[in-house]
TrEMBL record:
Regions crossing the membrane: 12-34, 40-61
Pfam families: YiaAB
Coiled coil: none
Keywords: Membrane, Transmembrane, Transmembrane helix
Protein name: YiaA/YiaB family inner membrane protein
YiaAB two helix domain location: 14-66
Length: 104
């Protein structure tokens, strides 16, 4: 069988940095929309647009991750089938079905 790839895990620091970056970006955007000199309906529209963009980005990231994981699973199944065929293959077998050097 082939070597099983090691599943990579993110470090706690990387996770913390990603969460902090997201929180800072959302806070800065919210403050910017709040401080904008425009009517309330314009600020509300921008806030809804930002929320829609964020949820769409999360959905897209999840879909991409799921497709990549499915590709890995299919690849591993194909590799297991190939390994099985290679293990069962006898290069010295005659086309008639009996291995070379053996009598039927």
């Amino acid at each position: 069988m082939s070597d099983t790839p090691v599943k990579q895990q993110n470090t706690a620091a990387f996770y913390g940095q990603a969460v902090a970056s997201f929180a800072v970006a959302m806070a800065a955007t919210a403050i910017g929309i709040y401080q904008l000199e425009a009517d309330a309906w314009v600020r509300a529209f921008l806030a809804i647009a930002v929320l829609y963009l964020v949820t769409s980005a999360f959905t897209l990231a999840k879909i991409i991750r799921d497709r990549q994981e499915i590709g890995q699973i299919v690849s591993r199944v194909d590799q297991a089938r190939l390994d099985k065929i290679l293990v069962e293959h006898d290069p010295f077998q005659k086309p008639g079905g009996t291995p070379a050097g053996q009598r039927p």
